[in-house]
Amino acid sequence: MDILHSVAKVRARVAQWRRDGRTVGLVPTMGNLHDGHLSLVQAARQECDAVVVSVFVNPTQFGPGEDFDAYPRTLDADAARLRDANVEVLFAPSVEEMYPLGANRSWVEVDDLGDYLCGADRPGHFRGVTTVVSKLFHIVQPDVAVFGEKDFQQLAILRRMTEELLFPIRIVGAPTAREADGLAMSSRNGYLTEQERALAPRLQHHLRQARQALEDGERDFRALEARTAEALGKDGFGVDYVTVANARTLVPAAPGDRELVIAAAARLGKPRLIDNLTLTLPAS
Ligand SMILES: Nc1ncnc2c1ncn2[C@@H]1O[C@H](COP(=O)(O)OP(=O)(O)OP(=O)(O)O)[C@@H](O)[C@H]1O
Ligand SMILES: CC(C)(CO)[C@@H](O)C(=O)[O-]
Ligand code: BAL
What does the entry list as the binding residues for ATP (predicted)? Predict the structure, then answer.
């Protein structure tokens, strides 16, 4: 595996692969890799002849007061894991390489799907994500790019961006990888104290309870959200949102919606954890 830091070197490597007739997969990450990231790499591996994983903590998707400076940067350990996974290229650019003119003035923004869920709590976040992912798409020009369903709204927004901006790239969503106790894997789980870590799976537990209630016939979505938020609060979470949403539009679900996502973001000590479950209601 090669670790490349410059846009020019990645472009040259991909051009060589293209001359050799090889297909290319891209897995964008912010590093501090865990088994969830590795499952994305496996998915890319299955689809493509050569895999690029990017590790870049993207400043433009962090809001003021968020953890840009503290975000774990563990490039040596990440490289070792990616080497074991037979990745061809690890692209680890500097901020200057990705934002050559300094303060960014050119943005890619999806003017939809961002009004609810994390978009409501993190103004500007998804504009930073779509901008940096567009840059990565232009640099690598992959056939396939893989993103996790754990970041459900991010995946929906990136699918929309890819389709509307006519990127000739197939977006693959990978299922959420979980710890044995159900907690969704996340780099930010590393911020949890031992006591918080023991509580953290309760987020998934309450989402499962909510899904069960829907399967059992609950149709008052707002009441279910309130009950779930209250249960999380009693467990010690600071709840940012619990929303039963239309899985396609991400708008809070209305009567008649059948493809649903139950999504939540909740703070537990330092980190803000997110998780979601999807379900399809039977036709009534
Ligand atoms: N548990 C997981 N299962 C599947 N995919 C995941 C999981 N966690 C993260 N991903 C995906 O990995 C990619 C890179 O995410 P990122 O580097 O932000 O990891 P993260 O663990 O989610 O970190 P953070 O704690 O910042 O949310 C994204 O597409 C994300 O959806
Ligand atoms: C897609 C991404 C790598 C863009 O910085 C980031 O938002 C993430 O890690 O999910
Ligand atoms: N996985 C989402 C990246 C972020 O929280 O900034």
Answer: 30-37, 148-151, 177, 185-188
Q: List residues near ligand 3 (CB under 6 A).
A: 61, 151
- Delimiting residues of CATH 3.30.1300.10 domain(s) in the chain: 187-275
Residue 257's pLDDT band (boundaries 50, 70, 90)?
A: very high
The CATH superfamily label for domain 2-174 reads HUPs (3.40.50.620)
Pocket test for ligand 1, best of 35, 38, 39, 40 (most atoms within 8 A of CB): 40
ipTM reported for the complex surpasses 0.95: yes
CB 242 within 8 A of CB 229: yes
Radius of gyration from C-alpha coordinates of the chain: 19
Q: What is the pTM of this model?
A: 0.98
Q: Is 37 marked active-site?
A: yes
Do the annotations mark residue 33 as ligand-binding? yes
